[in-house]
Amino acid sequence: MPLRLYDTWTRTVREFTPIHPDHVGLYCCGPTVYDHAHIGNLRTYVFEDVLRRALVLNGYNVRHVVNITDVGHLVSDADEGEDKMEKGSRRTGESAWAIAERYTAAFMNDWRALNLLEPALWCRATDHIAEQIDFIAELERNGFTYRTADGVYFDTSRQDDYGYLARLDVAGLQAGKRVAPGEKQRATDFALWKFSPPGATRQMEWDSPWGRGFPGWHIECSAMSAKYLSPWFDIHCGGEDHIPVHHSNEIAQTQARYGTRLANFWMHGHFLLLDAGKMSKSGGDFLRLQTLSERGNDPLAYRYLCLSAHYRSSLRFSEAALDAAQAALDRLRRSYARWPQGGKPDAASVARFKAEVDHDLNLPRALAVLWDVVRSDLPPATRRASVDCFDVVLGLGLADWKDVDTPELPAEIAALADQRERARAAKQWSEADRLRDVMTAAGWLVEDSAGGQVLRLRDQTE
Ligand code: AMP
Ligand code: ZN
């Protein structure tokens, strides 16, 4: 079955076919590095990583580009307020450049801890100022811009289908919003270049044909995706909040310069929610991956939690849900570690798993296939080889996991444990008890838990 993905542009699940035979271009909007990433942001990157792995499973060579926003993202999406970087600099007392460095490094640590595949390219907005200026100059030549006292703006009235991605009610938006005279002309227009405030120097500013200042937030993604993937590539991703503003504006710009809507597929991850509502970085009240580690959870348990919900539904975070994900992951790891290598995957299970992945990344159902295999009576080596295939997409790093708490099981005990698990599955209780006695006599205590049996070496004093 071919890979089918939901496209926000068409609002349908449709078959994915690559534009170029040799690679798939994937552009994902990356972090704004004025603070740590919160686990909501990270949910979006886990979704994008699973998408990339699903493409690899389908035999595609993926060119994955992620940007780092280190300038120009203002506190309000309506082009108002301070640059988040300068605000972050005031908060920490460090320079905007220093916090960009620090939070980029912290972000990379989270990235690795979640076992996210390294992109082909990370690109920073501040390393691409010339490309952004060129882009704006071209928009100006094509008649899509105007100047105000505080910057150069994109004129959204020049495009009949502005906001189509979000199905924006443009007329309603214009009527409902007051726009300050002398500033932008319409509520939907947006900044391409902002001037440094008169008489003041910003930490991050550059000369341009229009005056000293800095780029608006959206232009970086149009400029860098065109440079590294071409103006027409396969898939563009981000969180659902990007649909009405950031991605609508990227499309407007690229349409105005190149006549394309950037990507054939637009895909969006839905939000992670807290009981209190939406988790937001600028609210200052957010959970980091490190916060989860400090309470004893493995970052990969958070990854497992993300996999347990479909990327197009909201996921409400709770400590109980995270603990359940941790317990499931621990169970999976312990089972996996007991199974010997050298088997062949079970073709039917692998096909079932792939069918779920190919159906718009239905990871909750793919996980159900995984658990069917774990609990099946397939030979242990077959189960291990099958789970290895699944982990190409799940990215739980099962083969790399080392159980530091449990001593390694000798092969004969592992075989007995497996035999007993199958006896239990077949409800052959007396056989299961007999096998437990054999293992106990050999020095291994067997405890039955909801997730299967747990073995530990008997303390000699017991
Ligand atoms: P930012 O660093 O704020 O530019 O956001 C980075 C990514 O996280 C973007 O793709 C956002 O759409 C996404 N994002 C922001 N908040 C959440 C959330 N609560 N849940 C999931 N994704 C989010
Ligand atoms: Zn972007």
UniProtKB/TrEMBL annotation:
A motif ('HIGH' region) lies at residues 31-41. Its main location: cytoplasm. Its EC number is 6.1.1.16. Keywords: Aminoacyl-tRNA synthetase, ATP-binding, Cytoplasm, Ligase, Metal-binding, Nucleotide-binding, Protein biosynthesis, Zinc. Zn(2+) binds at residues 29, 221, 246, 250. InterPro entries: Cys-tRNA-ligase (IPR015803), Cys-tRNA/MSH_ligase (IPR024909), CysS_C (IPR056411), Rossmann-like_a/b/a_fold (IPR014729), tRNA-synt_1_cat_dom (IPR032678), tRNAsynth_Ia_anticodon-bd (IPR009080). SUPFAM superfamilies: Anticodon-binding domain of a subclass of class I aminoacyl-tRNA synthetases (SSF47323), Nucleotidylyl transferase (SSF52374). It comes from the Bacteria. It catalyses: tRNA(Cys) + L-cysteine + ATP = L-cysteinyl-tRNA(Cys) + AMP + diphosphate. GO terms for cellular component: cytosol. The keyword Transcription regulation does not apply. It is found in: Cytoplasm. Pfam families: CysS_C, tRNA-synt_1e. GO terms for biological process: cysteinyl-tRNA aminoacylation. Residues 406-455 form the Cysteinyl-tRNA ligase anticodon binding domain. One of its GO terms (molecular function) is cysteine-tRNA ligase activity. ATP binds at residue 281. HAMAP family: Cys_tRNA_synth. Belongs to the class-I aminoacyl-tRNA synthetase family. Monomer. This is Cysteine--tRNA ligase. It comes from Paraburkholderia phytofirmans (strain DSM 17436 / LMG 22146 / PsJN).
